[in-house]
């Protein structure tokens, strides 16, 4: 497939980029810092500011799918920057008539009990709250529109570099844990699940999640 990847040089974006390339997909990396990447077979690099909706709309045209690994975690106004950026991404996707939009979500919007989200628990780390608020905003924005076919993948509570095992459980809106109550996934397995969804859609217009059992 021919895909555009927003945030292709970031933590999760890099894993998505490598997973997609390893499966023979053509990837156009849409980034603000092109110096962080080197073009190679299958990978095209394009400089785009996601806050520039007109430029992003032009950049998103003609792909089989768009993957967004956009993150505002490095900004001083994390949630505000993310929300404005995601608004621009969604508007650009609509304007470019994107066929499918796959979005990296957060664990904070997953339920830990009926009606209770992880982000709203006292144990949720304060340093991650702004990023989680942005991801929750993105999910609600997607749920309240019908112009773009979308899927969001929320990781487990902890996502870190590790192994690509392919051995994990999938869920929808509830936080998944293992037998010891831990909620973990490697960024490599996250990328595998996202590119699996790209190739064989199983969660149209909804969010899903994953974690080790």
Report on this structure.
This protein has helices spanning 11-22, 53-59, 78-95, 129-143, 187-199; strands spanning 2-6, 26-31, 43-47, 65-68, 101-104, 111-113, 116-117, 150-154, 158-160, 169-171, 184-186, 206-211. It is α/β, with parallel strands linked by helices and 213 residues long. The strands form 3 sheets. The protein has an 8-stranded mixed β-sheet, sandwiched between helices. The chain has a two-stranded antiparallel ribbon with strand order 6-7. It has a two-stranded parallel ribbon with strand order 9-11. Helix 1 (11-22) packs across helix 5 (187-199) and helix 2 packs across helix 3 (78-95). The radius of gyration is 16 Å and the shape is globular. The model has no long low-confidence stretch (mean pLDDT 96).
User: How much is the average pLDDT?
Assistant: 96
Sheet-strand content, in percent, reads 15-25%
How helix-rich are the residues, as a percent range?
25-40%
> N-to-C terminal Cα separation, in Å?
31 Å
Number of helices: 5
Shape from CA axes? globular
Number of strands: 12
- Describe the biggest sheet? 8 strands, mixed
Structural class: alpha/beta
Name the strands of the widest sheet in spatial order. Answer: 3-2-1-4-5-8-12-10
Low-confidence stretches: none
From N to C, what is the helix and strand string? EHEEHEHEEEHEEEEHE
Rounded radius of gyration (Å): 16 Å
